[in-house]
User: Which sequence fits this backbone?
């Protein structure tokens, strides 16, 4: 018959140093198993490569992961005590040699995120009280973005850049070099236009790389004080990130034809002979502004049968030859300048169907001629037509 121990028996056994509680089995938790497995991966790397994993941005992805992982194992007391009995290479006590730690604030998942790799399963990086890289970056983004108090100073710049993109004076190209980040440059990042309004003095990082503090204005009315390398990293990670080129230098077209110029077409100005009451009452003001690659005189033959020409004959007022320019973009630019004076008229075609013709504007010819001159010298994007004063005015 089994004997039942009394409180006195327990006390006597305790005095003799006999433990009543069974010793804990050697079964580890799932987290402990992951920690050990992670440490063993680092050990295998050292065995194969013959050196400690390094924090080299140009190095292998997994080597960088192992380097960050080893940093974490050293820092976390629980991890260190768990793996220390297995440390045959002196990795945890540093006897195997230390390496520089430029990314000491990144855990495994954070480093994977930096490299654009998604971690499928949690690893030893499930550290308590440590925010993930995504959480940190989201917090930094919120903290760094603020309402731009003087956005009115920059609003017109964004509008002008968009117009110049539409007309082909500027283009978007893939971002390539940090050297492209300069004061006055425009970029597209995160689906927004970004303008580098200020750039501070250039400094060197601990790794010997150049950096500088920027003031970046975004087209949604916010701004950020970020480092140049932060903007570079954001551009590199954004598949849709682009840099916006500076306006093309030189005139868009010229009356002087060089030997190597490629003819692109002709701007033509027409005046209608239509007896429509609105046209007849404003005949000296109503003009059609178009761009063509064909012979203008051939194009306007049979004008009386085409709604494009108001079903009437037309008078050719002026032509301007184009060279080395997109006709469609230039046409769009001209129509945008005079958009406020577009002729609102409806006529009927040969079959009696109502049609609203395009490219007709109620603008004096001398203003059109002035606009062409401003297109030549590249200043047209600073102007728009004011119907009330019947002249070009600065934006």
Assistant:
């Amino acid at each position: 018959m089994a004997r039942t121990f009394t409180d006195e028996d327990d006390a006597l056994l305790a005095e003799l140093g006999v433990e009543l509680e069974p010793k804990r089995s050697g079964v580890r938790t799932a987290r402990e198993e992951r920690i050990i497995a992670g440490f063993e991966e680092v050990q295998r790397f050292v065995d194969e490569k013959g050196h400690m994993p390094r924090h080299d941005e140009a190095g292998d992805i997994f080597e960088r992961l192992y380097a960050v992982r080893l940093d974490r194992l050293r820092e976390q007391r629980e991890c260190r005590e768990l793996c220390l009995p297995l440390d045959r290479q002196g990795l945890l006590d540093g006897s195997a040699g230390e390496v520089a730690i430029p990314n000491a604030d990144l855990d495994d998942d954070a480093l994977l995120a930096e490299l654009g790799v998604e971690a499928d399963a949690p690893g030893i990086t499930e550290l308590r009280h440590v925010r993930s890289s995504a959480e940190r970056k989201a917090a930094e983004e919120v903290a760094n973005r603020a309402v731009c108090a003087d956005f009115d100073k920059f609003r017109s710049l964004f509008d002008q850049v968009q117009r110049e993109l539409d007309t082909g004076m500027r283009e978007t190209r893939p971002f390539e070099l940090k050297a492209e980040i300069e004061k006055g440059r425009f970029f597209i990042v995160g689906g927004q236009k970004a303008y580098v309004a200020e750039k501070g003095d250039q400094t060197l990082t601990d790794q010997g790389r150049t950096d500088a503090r920027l003031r970046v204005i975004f087209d949604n009315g916010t701004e950020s004080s970020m480092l140049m390398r932060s903007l570079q990293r954001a551009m590199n990670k954004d598949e849709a990130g682009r840099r916006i080129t500076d306006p093309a230098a030189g005139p868009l077209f010229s009356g002087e034809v060089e030997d190597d110029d490629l003819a692109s077409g002709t701007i033509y100005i027409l005046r209608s002979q239509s007896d429509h009451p609105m046209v007849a009452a404003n005949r000296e003001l109503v003009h059609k502004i178009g761009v063509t690659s064909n012979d203008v005189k051939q194009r306007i033959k049979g004008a009386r049968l085409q709604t494009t020409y108001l079903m009437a004959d037309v008078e050719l007022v002026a032509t301007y030859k184009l060279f080395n320019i997109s006709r469609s973009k230039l046409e769009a630019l001209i129509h945008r300048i005079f958009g406020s004076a577009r002729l609102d008229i409806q006529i009927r075609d040969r079959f009696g169907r109502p049609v609203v013709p395009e490219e007709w504007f109620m603008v004096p010819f001398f203003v059109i001629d002035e606009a062409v001159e401003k297109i030549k010298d590249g200043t047209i994007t600073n102007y728009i037509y004011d119907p009330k004063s019947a002249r070009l005015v600065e934006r």
In short: The first helix runs from residue 7 to 15. The two ends are 105 Å apart (CA to CA). The chain has twelve helices and 17 strands. The chain has three domains: 28-130, 141-244, 263-394.
